[in-house]
Amino acid sequence: MADLGPSWNLRQFLSSFAALLFIPGPALSLICYCNPCHETHVNSTCVAKPLSKCFTAIEVTEENGQKVDIWTFGCLPPDESTLLQCKGDRVPHEKPQTIECCDDADQCNLDLQPTFLERATTLSPGYVPRTYDGYDESITQIALLVSVTLCLVILISTLIFVYLRYKRREMRRQQYLEEAEHCDTFIAADETLKHLIDASQSSGSGSGLPLLVQRTIAKQIRLVKSIGKGRYGEVWKGKWRGENVAVKVFFTTEEASWFRETEIYQTVLLRHDNILGFIAADIKGTGSWTQLFLITDYHENGSLYDYLQCHTINASEMMELSHSAICGLSHLHTEIFGTRGKPAIAHRDIKSKNILVKKNGSCCIADLGLAVKYVSESNEVDIAPNTRQGTKRYMSPEILEETINPTHFDAYKQGDMYSFGLVMWEIARRCVTSGIVEEPEVPYYDCLAMDPSFDEVKKVVSHDRRRPAIPNRWSGDETLKVMSKVMTECWTHHPAARLTSLRVKKTLGKMQETLENNLKI
Ligand code: ADP
Ligand code: MG
Fold first, then answer.
1. Are 290 and 173 in contact (CB under 8 A)?
2. Residue 283 maps to a domain
3. 155 falls within a domain
4. Containing domain of residue 255, as a range?
5. Which of 242, 276, 298 represents a domain boundary (last residue)?
6. Which of 98, 125, 152 is the last residue in one of the domains?
7. What does the pLDDT look like over 485-494, one tens digit per residue?
8. What is the four-CA torsion angle of 497, 271, 257, 443, rounded to 10 degrees?
9. What is the Å distance from ligand 1's center to 198 Cα?
10. Do 190 and 292 belong together in one domain?
11. Is 1 within the bounds of a domain?
12. Beta strand extents in 176-310 (DSSP E only)
C-alpha cells in the first residue's frame, strides 16, 4: 500500500465520510485561490466541493519566440481531483503543462510549485520538487473503508440489540404458553358450561372460572364461522363440546383492549342476566401471530342493531328490550359495597351494535373494552390505558366539546345515559302501532353521513343541539309516549339534568308491569 505520509489529513477523511453518509458538503468545503477566477467567484477565491482539491498549473507557451510559463490557480471538479490530472506533467499535452493539487488548508495552492520532470529545474528559488506516489486514491479508499466499517459496526450492533429484545419477549411469551400447555385440567365429559360457571360462582371466587379451566376450555374450542366484525377484532361462533360459544379474536395490535375487556369481565359480582356472560380468555401463538381470545355466551340473534334491521316489534317486546338493556346498564353503573363488593362501571361505548339480543327477547350489554371502573372509597377513576375512543355518532355533547372532567366518574355515567337515549329511539322506531312503523335507522341518519367526523357530529349534536325526531304517531300510544319522554330526558344537553340508569330502570319497569297487567285483562 502507498505511503500515506504527511498527505493524509482530517479534511479528506471527513469529506469522504460525509460524502458516504450523504451529508451536504459546504461545512467541509475547501477554499482555493483562483486566478483567473470565474465571474461568480469573490475575493479571488473559489470553493472546492467535498472530495475536491485546489490546483496550481503551469502551461508553457511561446511568445515572440520565447518560452513563457502561464500560471493558473483554481478549484478542480471533484471527479478530476484524484486522477491523473493531479500528476504533474505526466499527462502528455500538445503544449508542456504541469499541475499540482492540494487540499490540506484553505488557499493551499498559493504555495504549490508544480515541476516539469524533464526540465528538472526549479521554478523559483528554494523550490523543493515534490513527487506523487498515488496516495490520493489510497486516502479516499481508506476513508471509504473506515466509513463503511463504521456503518457496518453500527448496523450490526443495532441488529443484535433488536434481536436480543425480540428473543427476550419471545422467551417470556413462550414461558406463558408452556405454563398454559402443562396446566391442562380435567373437565368431566358430562360437564356443561352453565354448570361450571354456576359452580365457580357459588364457590366464592366470584370473578369467573379459574384460569386453569379457562385455558383448558379455550384450547378445546373449535371456531365455526365469523359472525361479526368490530373495530377491535372479529367475532366467531365457536363450539365447545357441542355447546355454542362466541369467540372474540382481537387484532394483535389490540392487546390493550383484550386485556381491559378481560379484566372488566373478571370483576367480582359483574355476572348479570343483562350483561354478556363471560366464559374464558386466553392467548395463543407466538411472535407476530399471537391471537387473543375472549370467549362469551353466544347469542344467535346477534346485536340489537342487527335484530332491529329485520324485526318489527310490539309494545311488550319493545319494553322487554329497553327494560332489560337498562337493567344491564344499571347493574354496571351501580357500586356494590362490602369486602367483596363491585366497583361502579361506566361503559363508554353504548350503542345498538354493542347490545346483544338473547333468545328470550331480552338484551345484554356487550363490548366492555372501553369501560371505566370507580371505587368510591378510594375515589379512584380507573380508566382504560388504551387509546380507544367511543363511537362518534353516539358521543354526548360534553364529550364532543371536550369539556368532560376525566376524574369525575359521574360524567361517564351521564355520557352512557345520553347514548342510551339514542338506543331507545332506535328501538321505538320499530314498534308497530295501528299498522304503522318507521324504517330502522341509526341516530342522526338524516343529518350525518355513514362515518361522520368528530367535527361534523359536534356541529349537529352540540352546536346545533339537534336530536332525533319523535314521530307524531308516538304521542298517540301510551307506551311510546313514555318511551319518548324517557329518551328525551336521557339526551338533554346538560349532563346533570339527564335521568340516571336507576331512574330509567324504575320507570320502564313500571311501564312494562302496567302493560303486562293490561294485556292480562
Ligand atoms: P368490537 O369490540 O370489535 O366492537 P364487539 O364485541 O362489539 O366487538 O362485537 C362485534 C359484533 O359481533 C357485535 O356487534 C355483534 O354483531 C357480534 N357479536 C359479538 N359478540 C357476540 C355474541 N356473544 N353473540 C353473537 N354475536 C356477537
Ligand atoms: Mg363493538
1. yes
2. yes
3. no
4. 171-298
5. 298
6. 125
7. 999 999 999 9
8. -40
9. 24
10. yes
11. no
12. 222-229, 233-240, 243-250, 278-284, 291-297
Q: 381-437 pLDDT, tens per residue?
A: 888 766 668 999 999 999 999 999 888 999 999 999 999 999 999 999 999 999 999
Query: Three-state SS for 384?
Result: coil
263-295 pLDDT, tens digit each:
999 988 899 999 999 999 998 766 667 788 999
Domain membership of residue 3 (yes or no) is no
308 and 434 housed in the same domain: yes
Regarding whether 291 and 183 lie in a shared domain, the answer is: yes
Catalytic residue among 349, 367, 416, 477: 349
Q: Are residues 345 and 393 in the same domain?
A: yes
Please indicate, yes or no, whether residues 251 and 327 belong to a single structural domain of this protein: no
Q: What domain count does the chain have?
A: 3
- Does residue 356 have its Cβ closer than 6 Å to ligand 1? yes
State the distance from the centre of ligand 2 to the C-alpha of 441, rounded, in angstroms.
18
What pLDDT score does 37 carry? 87
Residue whose grid cell is 354448570: 195
In terms of Cα–Cα distance, which of 286, 493, 509 is closest to 399? Answer: 493
Residue 34 CA, ligand 2 centroid: distance in Å: 75
Q: How far apart are CA 249 and CA 226, in angstroms?
A: 10
Residue 111 catalytic?
no
In contact, 46 and 75? CB cutoff 8 Å:
yes
- Helix ranges, 391-453 (H): 397-400, 409-429
Write out the three cell numbers for 445. 341518519
Q: What pTM did the predictor assign?
A: 0.68
Domain of residue 330, CATH code? 1.10.510.10
Ligand 1 touching residue 303 (CB < 6 A):
yes
How many Å apart are CA 391 and CA 414, to the nearest integer?
15
Residue with the larger pLDDT of the pair 471 and 123? 471
